[in-house]
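Researcher: I'd like a candidate sequence for this fold, 141 residues long. If you have to choose between options at a position, lean toward the conservative one.
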């Protein structure tokens, strides 16, 4: 890998990390979801600074070409990030279903309480009317 390629990879990776920090600072992206990406781009920066590591990793993995080792590492990182996002999505779906159920139960309780209050209000109105009728009859005598 030549020096210009290394510089471009480092600049691009640092730019993406700064972009992620800015999104987190503006609260448009969660720290939890950004951690795998920070980790991935730090690995890219380390491999760009020390390209001999790619050769050693390829040798350890039994891969003949260092370029194939880079693709293998990239695919592993991306699969890891996708799995983490899938777990988070699944958890969020379960949580939203639970919240929808709780809201439905609260609405049902409110409607039942409202019906009880309406029944009691109607009963008190009827009693008030009966009370005025009784009072009127007693006044007539």
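Model: Candidate sequence:
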């Amino acid at each position: 890998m030549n020096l210009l390629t290394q510089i471009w990879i480092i600049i691009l990776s640092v730019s993406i990390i700064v972009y992620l920090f800015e999104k987190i600072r503006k609260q448009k992206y969660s720290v939890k979801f950004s951690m795998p990406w920070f980790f991935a781009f730090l690995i890219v920066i380390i491999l760009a600074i020390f390209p001999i590591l790619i050769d050693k990793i390829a040798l350890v993995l039994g891969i003949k070409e260092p370029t194939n080792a880079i693709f293998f590492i990239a695919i592993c990182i991306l699969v890891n990030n996708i799995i983490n996002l899938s777990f988070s999505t699944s958890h969020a779906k379960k949580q939203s279903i639970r919240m929808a159920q709780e809201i439905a139960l609260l609405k049902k309780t409110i409607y039942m309480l409202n019906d009880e209050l309406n029944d009691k209000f109607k009963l008190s109105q009827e009693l008030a009317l009966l009370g005025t009728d009784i009072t009127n009859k007693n006044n007539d005598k």
